[in-house]
Amino acid sequence: MSKWSWRRAAWYTAATCTGTVLLPLAVPAIVTIYAIVWIYTWTHDPRARTNAMRILPLHPRRVFRCIAALWAGMLDGLGGPTLAIIASYMAAKLSRSSRPQDTAVRDIKYGPQAKHRLDLFVPLGRGTGLAPVVVILPGYRWAKTKRARMYRPMAQTLCGDGMFVVLPRVGGEGAGPDGVLGDFHLAIQWVFDNASNFGGDARRVHLLGYGAGAHLCAMYSLIVPLKTWYAQADRISPNAQLLSSRRADQCLRSWLRRIKRVQRPVAGLILVSGVFDLASQRRYEAERCIEHLSATCRSFGAKPEMEEAWSPATIVRCLRRRSAFIPAELFASSVLLIHGKRDSTFVLQQSQRLFRELCEIDVPDVNMKIYANLRRVDPSIALLAPASALAQSLLEDIRSSVSPSQPAAADEAVSGSDDDDDADAVEKTPNGLSTLSEPTAPTRTLNPPALSSVSKQAPSVNDTEPKMRACATGRDYFSQRRTKSMLVPSKS
Questions:
Q1: Which of these, 77, 153, 122, 126, lies nearest to 378 by C-alpha position?
Q2: H/E/C letters for each residue in 23-41?
Q3: What is the greatest pairwise CA distance in the chain?
């Protein structure tokens, strides 16, 4: 035999031996993977009620993509500092000789049904003035808020910062997104009607949502602009259409009709790890072979008209393109977007797109913070340990959004693209973290945020595409450069 033949024989021999050794381990692993994917499909796919056998994935590529997505979702929920924070919270809870003071007034009725109840957390030791109000919409699913009790430690922590916190229970078994949004509307109207009675400021009502809750908070903030647009458009043409398809427009009008007596827009939004473009989210889930297993599919049915009618980023873009002028007073005056860069459930591009759309319609105050080393940012978990660096960062962001300061340099932050202007646009928090405030200016252009930064510069006369600038990143990023980046290193 030739030299090459001996090498080929040695290679086949090694491959055969390796396969013989690994085969007893590979077969149980493959069977386990298929079993996990099939059980999850049986329990989460809506089509399993009619034909359970035909929906089971058989192709190895689809099965392994599905198990990879499920593994990434588990890491999103338990990765990073989550387990350490939970362990620290449980240890502190068990070691305390006396329970911490609970300032909540529970089970306040806000609507006509028995399920319409909320908890009001009252701050202690506040001054004589009116305090801001934060309404939390828990965000584990679009149908109900059964896990709302998990947000009580978070609400108590926010209450310690001198703000009223309202935690409503909305939705229920069989409720859809429109039902949850209707209940949420009743809770917010109760806050507007009774804020002066319990010491809250009705002019400073902010909505805080996480995940699906962030999506619904963004949708609620668009009710006033949408009702205003349709009222003006119907006077001109009875068949006025805002969205691209007639069916999507009818779907949008149908849930808008259920919302009655909208008093005023909310003062601000705090949106954490949300989804704001359902069509792109469905395409992303289809690439991971979980398009029929996700909560998005179960809530919106993978229907294009539903996805368009319930996508805040798409609605804002349509309002901007079909309106000559949109008064900024119709929108929330302050918007804070928080997202983890490595989030695999709702990817960072979801918040980036809404950030860009809000900036292009001249919302007065738009901020975004990206946590570089985190997957999913869950405020209900992070604020279990208020002394941690992550909790302090979130509290500082929420505090500055609810009670914003008025720096003198804010009006000059967008006058040009020089380094001096870049330095003026950055605000430093006590923890050394940088945030970007979006000041009002009649001739500004916002650029879409990159994965590592969000930047903007003054446009030239012939600019037609938004421009991007690279920003340095690294361990000593914040001590070396003061740029308009919002990439924040996370610490547990």
A1: 77
A2: HHHHHHHHHHHHHHHHHHH
A3: 97
CA neighbor of 449 nearest in space, from 470, 427, 432, 474: 470
Residue type, 448: P
For residues 133-159, one letter each, b for 16 or more C-beta atoms within 10 angstroms of the residue's C-beta and e for the rest, the string is: bbbbbbbbbbbbbeebeebbbbbbbbb
Alpha helices in 45-81 (DSSP H): 60-78
Give Cα separations from 189 to 22, 116, 193, 289, 345 (angstroms). 63, 13, 6, 41, 32
In this predicted structure, which of 15-19, 176-180, 219-223, 398-402 has the lowest mean pLDDT? 15-19
Helices vs strands, H then E, count in the chain: 17, 11
Give residues with Cβ within 8 angstroms of 81, minimum separation 6: 382, 388, 390, 490, 491, 492
3-state SS assignment for residue 127: coil
State residue 47's pLDDT score: 82
Type of residue found at 262: V
